Structure formats: C-alpha cells, structure tokens
Amino acid sequence: MKLVNVTSIQVADETFVAAAPSLAAEAVGDQGNWRRWWPDLRLGVIEDRGAQGVRWTVDGPLVGSMEVWCEPVLDGFTLHYFLHAEPVDTGAGAWDADGLANANRRRRAAGRAMSFEVKARLESGRVVGGPATRDPDADTTSANATATKVVR
C-alpha cells in the first residue's frame, strides 16, 4: 500500500557528537566524503549552511531530498540525518514491500555509518566523559559569551 504524499524511502536519525558545532562544517561540507558515504547518489546542494549542515537534492537510483542538520546541544551538537526519496522504477515488481523495506534499511545503515564516522573523527582524542572537543580556531571569549546568553 502506497501512502499519498509520503515517499517510499523515509530515513530520520540523530547522533550526539561531543565536539564544537563549528567543527561540523568541515566534516559534513566536504564533497569528497559525500561520494564515499553515498556512492550511488548524485547530490545537488540546495543549501550549504556551514556548521548547521547541508541540504541536497538526490538523483540516481533514488529521487528526492536529503539533509544533514547539525543542531547545537550543550557543548556539542546533534547530527540529524534525513532522507526522503522515491526509488526510480527499474521494472515491474522491482520495488515490492520487501524491496522497499530492504532499501530503507540500507539507507538507514548508510546514514548511521556517516554519523558514526563524523562522530569518531571529531571526538578523536577526547577523554570519555570529558568535555567536548573544542574548535582550536574558535574565539573562546565569544563562545563563553554565547554559552552565557543561552544559560540565562
């Protein structure tokens, strides 16, 4: 059964990263990573939001949209991953219920692998339970002022 106005591939996931949100831009915005993370998809940037993430159009075996949104939380950020797409028809019966369920699982696993790679890279060297990895290029005075504004 196909729901109206809902794509067949629906993935939403989130992972907390204990690192300065400003570090997300380099990892998520690096186009070289995109090809490794999603080798069969052709991505077109809709919006590059720097440390807040990227939104894409998706083409190839799927057509739709994808987003990585980095939401500042505490001293790190939550990396949200969304994929909303429709498979391209490759013949009669190619996308039955089992095929769609498998496709959703594969895309969810690819998103999770991307999230864990970003997490591992940005948290590298961080002591478990310790403070988030800091951005060495960030001005700590303005970061503290922002944190103070959020707390109040």
Q: How many β-strand runs?
A: 5
Radius of gyration: 18 Å
Total count of domains:
1
- Give me the CATH superfamily: START domain
SSE string: EHHEEEEHH
How many DSSP H or I helices?
4
**Beta-strand proportion:** 25-35%
> What structural class should be given to the helix and strand makeup?
alpha+beta
Protein name: Polyketide cyclase / dehydrase and lipid transport
Organism: Gordonia aquimaris
Biased composition (Low complexity): 139-152
Region (Disordered): 127-152
State the gist of this model.
The protein has helices spanning 24-29, 31-37, 97-123, 140-151; strands spanning 9-17, 42-48, 53-59, 62-73, 76-87. The protein is of the alpha+beta class.
Give a written overview of the molecule.
- This protein has 152 residues and is an alpha+beta fold.
- Strands 1-5-4-3-2 form a five-stranded antiparallel β-sheet.
- A hairpin with a 4-residue loop joins β2 and β3.
- The protein is elongated, with a radius of gyration of 18 Å.
- The relative contact order is 0.21.
